[in-house]
Amino acid sequence: MEVSNIVNNVIEAWHAMSLIELIGVLTGIAGVWLAARQNIWTWPVSLVSVAMYVVVFYDARLYADMGLNAFYVVTSFYGWYVWLYGGKGHTERKVSRVSSKELTVLLLLGLVFTLSLGYFLENYTDADLSYTDSATTAISLIGYWMMAKKQLENWLVWLVVDVLYVGVYLYKELYLTSGLFFIFLILSVKGYLEWKQELEVQPARGVQAN
């Protein structure tokens, strides 16, 4: 009976985790699709997704990714606010480009973050893929910061990190999540093209307004 109870508990836990991952996948796809369309609903929908993945990554012992999604829960509110009121005169924020200075600072911070967190996870936890997990976390933080500021290049950052994530999650047998990031690859291309088009027509709109 005890063995049977254990087996049943394992099956129930697996089903629960699969459901949580599925919710994270569906809301994640919806969130990125909405972001590509510059729809403000991307933030509340994405909040559901990242909350689900805090649980999923804890179970998979991908602690850097778990921490990343916990960070997303908090900073999604920042992106929500900036998109609504981060433009001139507290109006809706428009698409812009990242400056070379800001990009350099972000890359340096990302490198330091990767090495520091990777060392900590490798030596003081039972984390798997410590440095890879830390690198994808650092790149994701950069992409998320740029998305919150509506900078076009955020989509190029997501393209890089999505390729890495597809491989990592296949290795960890998180097949739904790996498929999710493959879809993210496609949506990142869509987002880049749509935001680029929006950026190109902004000067024309400014001329018409004058």
From TrEMBL:
Per UniProt, the keywords (alphabetical) are:
Cell membrane, Membrane, Transmembrane, Transmembrane helix, Transport
Subcellular location, principal: membrane
Question: Out of the domains of life, which is the source?
Answer: Bacteria
Regions that span the bilayer: 13-34, 41-60, 66-83, 103-121, 152-168, 174-193
Q: Which Pfam families match?
A: NMN_transporter (PF04973)
**Record's keyword annotation contains GTP-binding:** no
Q: Where in the cell is it found?
A: Cell membrane
Q: How does it sit in the membrane?
A: Multi-pass membrane protein
Q: Which family does it belong to?
A: Belongs to the nicotinamide ribonucleoside (NR) uptake permease (TC 4.B.1) family.
Tell me, what does this protein do in biology? Required for nicotinamide riboside transport across the inner membrane.
The name this protein carries in UniProt is Nicotinamide riboside transporter PnuC
